From TrEMBL:
SUPFAM superfamilies: GroES-like, NAD(P)-binding Rossmann-fold domains. It holds the Pfam family KDD_N. Residues 12-158 form the L-erythro-3,5-diaminohexanoate dehydrogenase N-terminal domain. The lineage of its organism: Bacteria, Bacillati, Actinomycetota, Actinomycetes, Geodermatophilales. This is L-erythro-3,5-diaminohexanoate dehydrogenase. Transmembrane segments: none annotated. InterPro entries: GroES-like_sf, KDD_N, NAD(P)-bd_dom_sf.
Length: 343
């Protein structure tokens, strides 16, 4: 017999290995039949986490049909979209289909919602073979069902934003919230560098740092095209080009080490550059799902760097509203996010 806590976390849906939490499970039961405390979502669109999509796309040399087959294979075998290589998922939007009588989430049938819990722990069934997706974008039109537990979180979608924009912004809404919190806690106007600053989480983090009254803002981007876009967006005081996976290049490009570094790239190997770019006593926020804990910890030790390193928690109270607000208020954020999500 499972405890109320176990049920609220979805342990009853774990098929393998029995007893672990859904995020750690190899396989979940995605049966659309609901328990009394669950909610069923009719899925409309998945947003694959950027690190997961990049890994799948690179593993299949950009062959869209093969990427689609890989995603279908993962969901079929695991009962959730949990990339076994990156360990990451994403999130989804859909319409509330049925609400169990004991669900505490306050949702009602017919509401359009985004799930703010990871796809790595969300029971998911796909019923259309992802026929509407060419395998060439993070956003995946999909038909199927997903299940929320009583401790899951979901946001009702705003009416004023297109679904694909809301999905993209909500997927990374933990990044600006984490940045705001760290800037507030870092004392007087800390300098901030963002790696991957022209990406979705990167530009939102810059905007959040500005709002939180950070000092000098440095955006580190991959190439000249991204540098031009970020300069035009006006979100950073300084824009520099460096390969985030080249530690010395990052340190040289950032120059005077900063108080706070936020890692928003979607590739592995950014740990050492982020540590080198950060002043002693400073903080690195690793929002990227491609981060290696051991590379970060051992790299900092090896460089005798006295920095605090934070795992970018995808959840902070109020994170969804904060990110939506930044998107609505900042033309610079919109200029960087819209081309990534709106064809
Ligand atoms: P995104 O929009 O694709 O942005 C990533 C940015 O990094 C892009 O501008 C990309 O440039 C740039 N980049 C890639 N390789 C680089 C390199 N070697 N040097 C410099 N820049 C480089 O991704 P996102 O949606 O913001 O996601 C960013 C990260 O957050 C991902 O790792 C994702 O997994 C993670 N994430 C974490 C959470 C959480 O809860 N912690 C939730 C969601 C997502 P190009 O576009 O030119 O490649």
């Amino acid at each position: 017999m499972l405890s109320a806590l176990q049920r609220s976390l979805g342990v009853h849906r774990v098929l393998e290995p029995i007893g672990v939490l859904p995020q750690a499970a190899r396989r979940l039961d995605p049966d659309p039949q609901l328990g009394p405390d669950e909610v069923r979502i009719a899925v409309r669109r998945l947003n694959l986490d950027a690190a997961s999509y990049r890994q799948l796309s690179e593993a299949h040399a950009g062959d869209g049909a093969a990427v689609r087959a890989a995603v279908l294979g993962i969901v079929e075998s695991r009962g959730k979209m949990h990339n076994p290589v990156t360990g990451s998922g994403g999130m989804l939007i859909g319409v509330v289909d049925e609400v169990g009588p004991e669900s505490p989430l306050g949702l009602e049938p017919g509401q359009r919602v985004a799930t703010l819990v990871s796809l790595t722990l969300t029971p998911l069934q796909i019923t259309d073979g992802l026929a509407g997706w060419d395998g060439r974008s993070e956003q995946v039109p999909a038909t199927g069902t997903a299940v929320l537990f009583s401790r899951s979180i979901a946001a009702v979608l705003p009416d004023d934003l297109p679904e694909e924009v809301a999905l993209a912004v909500l997927d990374v809404c933990g990044a600006p919230a984490a940045t705001e919190r760290v800037v507030h806690r870092s004392g007087h106007r800390p300098s901030v560098a963002v790696l991957g600053a022209a990406g979705k989480s990167g530009c939102l983090s810059l905007a959040a740092a500005r709002d939180a009254r950070a000092g000098r803002l440095t955006g580190v981007v991959r190439d000249g095209r991204e540098a031009d876009a970020l300069r035009a967006a006006g979100l950073a005081d300084v824009v520099v080009v460096a390969d985030a996976t080249d530690p010395l290049a990052v340190a040289e490009a950032v120059g005077e080490p900063v108080d706070v570094t936020v890692v928003c790239v979607d590739v592995p190997g950014a740990e050492h550059g982020a540590v080198l770019a950060t002043a002693d006593g400073g903080t690195v926020v690793f929002f990227s799902m491609a981060t290696s804990f051991s590379a970060a910890a051992l790299g900092a030790e090896g460089m005798a760097a006295d920095v605090t390193m934070l795992v970018g928690n995808g959840y902070t109270p109020g994170h969804a509203a904060l990110a939506m607000d930044l998107y609505r208020r900042s033309p610079g954020v919109r200029s960087l996010i819209d081309p990534r999500v709106r064809a």
